[in-house]
Amino acid sequence: MRRLRGDEIDHLASLPRVKRASVLNFLASLPLEIGWANNLANLDRDAKVYRWNVETRRAIEAGIEVAYTEEEDGPEIWWEDGSEKRGGHIEIKGTFTD
C-alpha cells in the first residue's frame, strides 16, 4: 500500500462527469491503515449519503485500488489518451455505466 501521488488523484478527479471535489477530498485523506475493505465500505457509505454518480464512485474506487497495489514501482495507470504511468495495470476509462 502507498499514498497516491497528487498527479494520480488529479487525473482521477479530472475524468468526465466526476465530482472533482469529492474525489480530491476522499483520496487525499485516504486512511491506509484501516485497510482496503474498510476503505471500500467507507466509499460505499459516502456514495450513498452524498448521492455520488457512478463516475465519481468508480474514480474513487480506482484510486483505492491503486493505493493498495503492492508493486514496487506502483501501479500502471492507463490514462484516457492511451499513455501509461508506472508498473501494474488498472484501466481507467472516462465514462461508466451502472
Which tags fit this structure?
98 residues; mainly alpha; three-stranded mixed beta sheet; 6% strand; disordered C terminus
Please write out the topology.
Blueprint lengths: L5 H8 L6 H9 L7 H15 L3 H14 L9 E2 L5 E2 L4 E2 L7
Parallel strand pairs: 1-3
Antiparallel strand pairs: 1-2
Helix pairs in contact: 1-2, 1-4, 2-4, 3-4
- Tally of DSSP β-strands: 3
**Portion of residues within helices:** 40-55%
**CA-based shape:** globular
- Biggest sheet strand order reads 2-1-3
Decide which structural class fits the backbone. mainly alpha
Which sequence of SSEs, written as H and E, runs from N to C? Answer: HHHHEEE
**Which range does the strand content fall in?**
5-15%
Radius of gyration: 12 Å
- Major sheet, described briefly? 3 strands, mixed
Average predicted local confidence, pLDDT = 80
Number of continuous helical runs:
4
Poorly predicted segments: 83-90, 93-98
User: How many structural domains are formed by the residues?
Assistant: 1
* Straight-line distance between termini: 28 Å
